[in-house]
Design brief:
The complex is a heterotetramer.
Chain A lengths: L4 H28 L30 E7 L8 E6 L4 H4 L2 E7 L7 E7 L4 E4 L9 E8 L2 E4 L18 H22 L10 H16 L2 E5 L8 H20 L2 E6 L2 H17 L11 E3 L4 H15 L3 E5 L5 H11 L3 E6 L5 H7 L2 E4 L1 H11 L2 H29 L4 H6 L3
Parallel strand pairs in A: 8-9, 8-11, 9-10, 11-12, 12-13
Antiparallel strand pairs in A: 1-2, 2-5, 3-4, 3-6, 6-7
Chain B lengths: L3 H19 L3 H39 L4 H22 L16 H32 L5 H16 L2 H6 L2 H11 L1 H25 L14
Helix pairs in contact in B: 1-2, 2-3, 5-7, 7-8
Chain C lengths: L3 H14 L7 H37 L1 H4 L2 H10 L12 H31 L9 H19 L8 H52 L1
Helix pairs in contact in C: 1-2, 1-7, 4-5, 6-7
The chains are: A alpha/beta, B mainly alpha, C mainly alpha, D alpha/beta.
């Protein structure tokens, strides 16, 4: 088919949006320029020390107090930070964060924190309004007061600087995928290695036709908000086309109603494309129920009664994976499974003839259709994978020498 | 037009959460969260699609007296009873769908406790049996890969029960090591690869290359 | 004497278990009833927990701030256009928005929430500090070899073939171990059902007879 | 010929073994040996040696029916241990999907074994509270504000034992039976910030991550899954002979029985796997000889 100009527009506009965003970000990053607030919580905090017995202890004054707009938020909050005194835990120190409109205004308590905290995010404020903070350190009845912060005001920000790494990855990834897609359109041949499970698809459909038995295609139990389901529907398109060509008996029982609606469109279109719209029947794609195990009971029941020749279990599966696969195995069906749910892969591997593992599931539609555009996107994703492996190698080497730059760049948050 | 509009909608709807991830500005996040709240409702509406299909299929079965048609009556009876109490309960009938304030069960809750839960729990529990039969059949030392699978499974199964610990304390220790090291490494590898694969699939959907889920034919 | 609820629960439990022997009318009754019942259950749940609090109540109570939810309802209704031949194509719009939005969400969740931290966490120090270093090496080699296995642009031959073979071994260890590790949880579920049958249903029943 | 038949053993034979291995240990007590591990011993010693009559313990039901086979025996063992030592118990539930119903049924069951106990004096059930983490923080200030009434609707001020129990400072120990993240919050939030000693009884699947908290001394004891629960049962039975009688009641599900089922079914599976391989290899060798 000819290159569609609309698709080119999509690709270009995506690239343009991404490129336009970068200068904006860099600019706003300069303005914000502070690391993000961490989740409050004392996961790593030391065992709480007993509160000091004597009330005569004078608490240390908190130093290094700063208050500024919380960077990378939608506005309405300030972050207060201070240096925790070294003996805070032994003293059983408590902090009271106080807030006022001006340095010498009326301070009111915002919150009380235990030793181990040196940061507080004060939310629910008004953007553009000025605030000052003080921190009181408290041991029993004694209180010490810090000097107040300079006035500052909260505001909404335009970029979450701490997600810069994700943006870089997004750009590198989208860039390489779109680049290879463009290249594939230019007619450059692409190579993809053999994927065992996918070579068996034709065989499975053929076998079902010969035996005059059913092909059962189960597109997982999740909705089409799950990418695995979309990948599964792409494979379903291929299987349905083959079934139409061979005049095999296909059935697609569904657990999710939106997946059901989508699968109906997919199968109908596949029969149309294969030139056999006359063979398409509404009952091919049907709905069972929304409960995972009720669905499983129905489908396993169907398996033992109708003894399908081929079962496709492709998509997102949970605990029902083995119930379906083992029943299918017991009725002697040839089984091709595929999922990216790590916890369910063992069961498919054990009970099915072929299993598409993780990334192979997503590559399947490209592999089956052999369409250059889709193959190009696999190439692009391979390039990113290669870059990530290099980054991983570099990160390991630097880490071994005690340098943490690369590792830190991978988790800025 | 019929093909372009859905693809454009997909593109714009897909860009919103991506931008919202990086841009905290209030208007952007509002658009994203609003769309999110809409789609929850859309998913709720979708259930009726399924219900309609189930009623159609099963009444057809009964009308045609096709094989197993009496079971279609059982199915529709279950649907009617539970659907009625559920829908009526949602809008205040029969004291709602949970327990009443005095601790007694509403009809919906009673059916849930004494029919739904046992059915669901038993189906789930069948897995214990299926794991036994699957492991018997599949864990054979046919080749190197199958042997590795078998040995790893046996070590971990011994490591989880007191018996294994009594034979040698290395069973639980090795189990922990396998779970924390080689198992974790493989799972990470799968997750990184699958993450890239899913992202690539997503990108293909957003730019309109992958569209079989809309029944718009494949690629170009 | 066990109560009606216990009898019903026991009946359905036994019907389901009978599937292990072979397909039979009891299982089929339970299975069909379960399919209908569960669908009815979700009608109640969706009406109660989605449609009522997210659409009906906001529209009824505060229409002025929630009027935009009418669009959501509109999108939902669009799904049903498929039943009217002339405008069936409109039903794709709702699907398109739904898929588009969540695909965007998932794309970033995978890249930002999975790929980045998983790669970052694998950057472990390999400078010698005891046996732990060796285990770090196992981790790094495991992740890299599995990634090589998933590399589609090269044939599994030569060095790439060798490394991806190591990757397959790692996968097999993981699958075997995960299988063995899950057994315990599944048996616990079975214990739950059997304890119900034996202690709550059978014991009172036998007590009644003897 | 015979070997081939074993190879293709009807899966129903395996099912029969698994079913027998599950049902028989539930009916007949076998009591396979279990070695006591240090985290469980720590939990037992804490209650046995560091608490005295009249102390107050908080027991939080943070699990639902799906993990009851694992968590319920832990709850029973703790309750029995506390009541045997005349320790007062405050029961709460923070798990939304059935935590309260589990709390009610387990408490009723155990209380029936101790006829001297009086509600409101020796034990109380405060019921379920939504928003676990917020409730946990707030209870440090005032339990009466988090739970204004008990599960029966009686105001806390009218419950004798709650008069002296205002916040965590009046409680000596918290025990949580947990299936999800709530157990971790008790360790990394309540213990870390407010210093309340915590014992956690998680499911076996989530047990590994609790070892980190135990090592960091954010917990004073740990019962990992059914195995931990069965160890605890052994400890209380050895210490309190009257509990041994209770645990021998026919028709009562205990962790010891559950653990017997686990061991036996695991061993059945392992035996079948080994059998399958032995037959596979003997079968493989034979045709070669024939040739």
């Amino acid at each position: 088919m000819p290159v569609s100009s609309r698709n080119r527009v999509f690709c270009l506009s995506l690239a343009a949006v991404l490129l336009a965003v970068i200068p904006l970000l860099v600019f706003s990053a300069r303005v914000d320029g502070q690391p993000p607030p961490e989740q409050t919580g004392a996961a790593g905090a030391a065992e709480a020390a007993p509160v000091a017995e004597s009330a005569a202890v004078q608490p240390p004054v908190v130093e290094g107090l700063t208050a500024a707009d919380t960077p990378g938020d939608e506005g309405g909050s300030m972050t207060v930070k201070w240096t925790e005194p070294s003996d805070a835990a032994q003293l059983g120190l408590k902090y009271k964060v106080m807030r006022a409109d001006s340095p010498d205004g009326q301070y009111a308590e915002v919150c009380e924190l235990a030793a181990g905290e040196s940061k507080y995010m004060d939310a629910g404020l008004t953007d553009g309004k000025q605030y000052c903070y003080k921190v009181l350190s408290v041991v029993g009845p004694s209180v010490a007061e810090s000097t107040p912060t300079l006035p500052a005001f909260p505001r909404g920000n335009w970029f979450r600087m701490f997600r810069l790494n994700a943006l870089v990855l997004l750009i590198v990834f989208s860039g390489s995928v779109l680049f290879y897609i463009a290249r594939a359109r230019g007619g450059k041949p692409m190579y993809i290695r053999k994927i065992a499970g996918l070579n068996a698809v034709d065989e499975a459909v053929g076998r079902a036709t010969e035996m005059g038995k059913k092909i059962l295609y189960i597109p997982g139990i999740m909705s089409i908000d799950e990418i695995q389901t979309i990948a599964s529907l792409a494979i379903l398109g291929h299987v349905a086309k083959l079934s139409a060509q061979y005049n095999a008996d296909l059935e697609v029982p569904n657990k999710d109603p939106l997946t059901f609606a989508s699968a109906q469109e997919t199968v109908k279109e596949a029969y149309l494309e294969a030139g056999r719209p006359d063979l398409y029947r509404e009952e091919m794609v049907n709905y069972v129920t929304y409960d995972q195990f009720a669905y499983t009971a129905s489908v396993t029941g169907k398996m033992v009664r109708e003894k399908p020749a081929a079962n496709f279990l492709i998509g997102s599966f949970y605990a029902e994976s083995l119930l379906l696969a083992e029943t299918g195995q017991s009725v002697g069906a040839i089984q091709i499974s595929g999922t990216a749910e790590v916890a369910q892969l063992p069961f498919f591997v054990v009970a099915c003839d072929y299993t598409l593992i993780g990334e192979e599931l997503y590559a399947a539609s490209a592999y089956l259709s052999r369409e250059p555009v889709l193959m190009g996107s696999i190439k692009g994703q391979d390039l990113t994978k290669l870059l990530l492996m290099l980054a991983l190698g570099l990160g390991v080497i630097l880490e071994s020498f005690g340098l943490t730059y690369v590792k830190d760049a991978f988790r800025m948050q | 037009m019929r093909k372009q509009v859905p693809l454009l909608l997909t593109f714009f709807a897909g860009m919103i959460p991506i931008i919202a991830l990086f841009v905290p500005e209030r208007h952007v996040s509002t658009v994203s969260t609003t769309l999110d709240s809409w789609l929850i409702i859309v998913a709720g509406f979708a259930l009726l699609l399924g219900v309609v299909n189930v009623i159609q299929m099963n009444t057809n079965k009964i009308k045609r007296k096709s094989s197993g048609w009496p079971y279609a009556i059982v199915l529709l009876a279950g649907l009617a009873v539970m659907g009625f109490f559920g829908f009526a309960g949602a809008f205040g009938g029969f004291g709602g769908i949970a327990t009443r304030p005095d601790g007694s069960s509403t009809p919906f809750d009673w059916m849930y406790q004494h029919a739904f839960l046992p059915l669901q729990g038993t189906m789930f529990a069948l897995l214990a049996f299926f794991m036994a039969s699957a492991s018997y059949r599949a864990f054979r030392a046919r080749n190197v890969e199958a042997t590795i699978l078998l040995v790893a499974a046996l070590i971990v199964m011994f490591g989880r029960i007191p018996f294994g610990e009594m034979v040698t304390k290395w069973f639980p220790l090795t189990t922990e090591w396998i779970m924390a090291r080689p198992n974790m490494a493989a799972q990470r590898g799968i997750m990184i690869g699958a993450g890239l694969g899913a992202a690539s699939m997503a990108l293909r959907v957003i730019v309109g290359i992958e569209r079989s889920y809309l029944g718009l034919g494949k690629g170009e | 004497m066990p109560g009606l609820g216990t009898w019903l629960a026991a009946f359905f439990t036994l019907c389901m278990l009978s599937f292990l022997y072979k397909d039979n009318p009891f299982f089929r009754i339970a299975e069909s009833f379960f399919a209908g019942l569960s669908l009815g259950y979700y009608i109640g749940i969706v009406a109660n927990q989605t449609i009522k609090p997210n659409l009906v109540l906001p529209l009824m109570n505060e229409f002025s701030t929630n009027w935009h939810l009418l669009f959501a309802g509109g999108l939902g209704v669009m799904l049903y256009f498929r039943y009217i031949k002339r405008v069936a194509w409109v039903s794709r719009w709702a699907l398109a928005v739904y898929v588009g939005y969540y695909v965007g969400v998932n794309m970033m969740q995978k890249l930002h929430g999975e790929v980045l931290p998983q790669v970052g966490d694998t950057m472990l120090s390999l400078s010698w500090h005891g046996i732990g270093t060796l285990w770090n090496l196992v981790m790094v080699v495991g992740v890299l070899s599995v990634l090589i296995y998933f590399y589609f642009s090269a044939e599994h031959k030569g060095a790439v073939g060798g490394i991806s073979r190591v990757g397959i071994w790692f996968l097999m260890i993981s699958f075997g171990a995960a299988f063995g590790y899950t057994v315990m949880g599944r048996i616990s579920l079975l214990i739950g059902r059997m304890v119900f049958l034996v202690n709550e249903w059978a014991r009172p029943l036998i007590g009644l007879i003897t | 010929m015979n070997l081939e038949r074993i190879m293709q053993v009807d899966r129903r034979i395996i099912y029969l073994f698994v079913a027998a291995g599950t049902i028989l240990p539930i009916i007949f007590v076998i009591g396979l040996p279990v070695s006591i591990t240090p985290p469980v011993q720590m939990a037992f010693d804490r209650i046995e040696n560091q608490l005295k009559e009249g102390d107050v313990v908080l027991v939080s039901f943070d699990y639902g029916p799906s993990s009851a086979p694992e968590n319920a025996p832990m709850a029973d063992a703790f309750l029995r241990h506390c009541f045997s030592k005349h320790i007062k118990v405050v029961v709460i539930a923070l798990y939304p999907l059935g935590g309260l119903s589990e709390a009610v049924s387990e408490l009723n069951k155990v209380v029936a074994e101790f006829p001297d106990l009086e509600y409101g004096v020796d034990y109380v059930n405060l019921g379920y509270k939504d928003g676990a983490q917020a409730a946990m923080r707030k209870m440090n200030e005032n339990i009466h504000e988090v739970f204004p009434t008990d599960v029966r609707g009686t105001p806390l001020s009218q419950i004798p034992m709650m008069k002296d129990v205002r916040n965590y400072a009046d409680i000596k120990l918290c025990i949580t039976l947990a299936t999800g993240i709530i157990g971790e919050w008790w360790a990394n939030l309540v213990n870390a910030q407010f210093g309340l000693p915590v014992i956690v009884g998680p499911t076996a699947v989530s047990a590994p991550k609790y070892y980190a908290y135990l090592e960091a001394k954010q917990m004073v004891g740990l019962l990992g899954g059914l195995k931990g629960a069965s160890e605890y049962e052994r400890l209380v039975v050895n210490k309190y002979p009257h509990l041994a009688e209770v645990y021998a009641t026919p028709g009562m599900y205990t962790a010891t029985k559950g653990m017997d089922v686990q061991s036996i079914v695991h061993l059945i599976m392992i035996a079948f796997i080994v059998l399958g391989n032995v037959v596979y290899f003997t079968g493989k060798r034979k045709p070669r000889k024939a040739a």
